Every structure is written in C-alpha cells, then in structure tokens.
C-alpha cells in the first residue's frame, strides 16, 4: 500500500477508537458515527482504486 493509503487507514482506525471512546464516555452521537462511516468508505475507495 502506498503511504497515503496507509495514512488514511491509520486515521480510520484512530477515528474508530476516538468515536468508540466518546460513545462510552458521553453516549452515542449519530453524526460522529456517520462521519466515521464516510471516512471508512473513502479509505475503502482508496484501497480499491490502488488495487486495480
């Protein structure tokens, strides 16, 4: 994987950790989860475009 894709993967995983911690500490926030899903889809798109 190129560097930019690895960076996006790391940001996606880090985002998941932060959103999960926020949910545990303060309760669920739908917008945070929506943002994380969008970030994950962008990351998957980057991975898919690199593999073709």
UniProtKB/TrEMBL annotation:
Alphabetical keyword list: Membrane, Transmembrane, Transmembrane helix
Name used for this protein in its record: Integral membrane protein
Top-rank taxon: Bacteria
Keyword Membrane: yes
Spans through the membrane: 7-25, 31-49
């Amino acid at each position: 994987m190129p560097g930019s894709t690895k960076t996006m993967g790391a940001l996606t995983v880090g985002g998941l950790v932060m959103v999960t911690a926020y949910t545990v500490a303060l309760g669920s926030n739908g917008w945070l989860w929506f943002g994380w899903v969008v970030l994950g889809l962008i990351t998957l798109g980057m991975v898919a475009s690199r593999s073709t």
